[in-house]
Amino acid sequence: MNRPGRNDSCWCGSGRKYKKCHLASDDAGTTSPPAPTFGRAPSASRRNAHLILDDEGQEGMRAAGRFNAQVMDFIRPQVKAGMTTDAIDKLVDTYTRDHGHIPATLGYHGFTKSCCTSINEVVCHGIPGADVLQDGDIVNIDLTSIVDGWFGDQSETLLVGEVDAVSRKLVTDTFESMHLGIEAIRPGGRILDIGRAIQTYAHSHGYSVVREYQGHGIGRKFHQDPGVPHFPDFEMGQFIVEAGMCFTIEPMINLGTYRTKLDRHDGWTVRTADGKRSAQFEHTILMTESGPEILTLTEHGPQRGHTF
């Protein structure tokens, strides 16, 4: 990787100066060069009229969110110890195609699978394969569906068998942090409010919040403005949210350091730098005149206030 200058924009796309972002971790060898990723930060956002969905667009996003939630309800009860992550992927792919829709991750910047499966210390973008789920694992299933050209996007961290109390609490608190982030935003509010609510809660429970990967605008494109940091980023966080905007909130919360490392072999898998566990939840949100509407609520999955 050719390093940027100290005062240049960081390579990760956060919009921050390199010296205030990845310089220290690059010097320490705890981060890796960027690859095309699903949730890496876009450039700092400005107000853009094209991000406001009309009534037809909002209904399109509601339909995509409903179907994506349906896929999550389908896959959740089937995830068990002894199952490979590739088996999960095949179930997701078949179910999505049998209903006439498209798994968005397949072929995205060369990604070879129809969902992401991130186990234990894997923060995000785990590639389904021969890995076998073990009793006591936690695994994040990240699903995105294209329904009539619109993208629905969500993830859940699932418990595999008997999971230790520390990991269960991490999952519960990550789920809570996502909902606090959702509840923190209103029309006319700043993206900053989301990250502040998430980080305040996470830090109060002794966790760290991943900075390199974040939420994003979504609609007819998988990733677009605004970027949604899960910590109070005072540069990107000034973006004003307006009614009609769609975006994801998807905090990644770690037991140890917030720093991550990218797998140099596959170019996708992101792990915690210290090998400690990470959990994530994600919903697609439509901002309405009266507040945030969650488009990816599931019928049979965990609801606000759930304890894992």
Structural overview:
50% of the residues are buried. Helix content is 24%, strand content 21%. The strands form 5 sheets. Strands 1, 2, 4 and 5 form a 4-stranded antiparallel beta sheet that branches. Strands 3-12-11 form a 3-stranded antiparallel beta sheet, with no helix packed on it. It is globular and about 50 Å long. By secondary structure, the chain is an alpha+beta fold. It is built from 5 helices and 15 strands. Helix 4 (165-183) packs antiparallel against helix 5. Strand 14 and strand 15 (291-294) form a beta hairpin.
Structural class: alpha+beta
Determine the mean pLDDT: 90
The shape is globular
| Named CATH architecture of the largest domain | Alpha-Beta Complex
Estimate the strand proportion: 15-25%
How is the CATH topology of the largest domain named? Creatine Amidinohydrolase
